[in-house]
Design a protein that fits this description.
two-stranded antiparallel ribbon; 4 helices; single chain
């Protein structure tokens, strides 16, 4: 591999690593109030909801966003068994496998 290309890859790794690790390193040494720790526990759920809800419920039609509650919405149909597996097993691997199997089956069958 050429040296400039290697330096480019290393530079990109550093630029990606520092913003992710700096807050972790700095905040790990500070005592955090209990309310802040409880608030941080809600962040993953909020982010997941913000990513999934528009993807599952909204469709772009002629430049407008419309609510998409239909049997053609395979993502929404696949979400039902996936959520059930997630709640039952609390296992991310089983949840991902269920979601993949559900969307694959719906796309092949319908």
């Amino acid at each position: 591999m050429r040296t400039p290309l290697l330096l480019l890859f290393l530079g990109m790794a550093v630029v990606t690593y520092i913003p992710r690790m700096a807050p972790l390193v700095l905040l790990s040494r500070l005592p955090m109030p209990a309310w802040f720790v409880r608030w941080l526990a809600c962040v993953p759920v909020a982010v997941m909801a913000a990513l999934l809800v528009p993807t599952l419920l909204v469709k772009q039609v002629e430049g407008a966003s419309v609510l998409w509650l239909s049997w053609d919405n395979h993502g929404l149909l696949a979400a039902a068994p996936t959520v059930a597996v997630a709640l039952r097993t609390r296992n991310i691997f089983a949840t991902v496998l269920c979601g993949l199997a559900a969307i694959f089956a719906l796309n092949c069958l319908l």
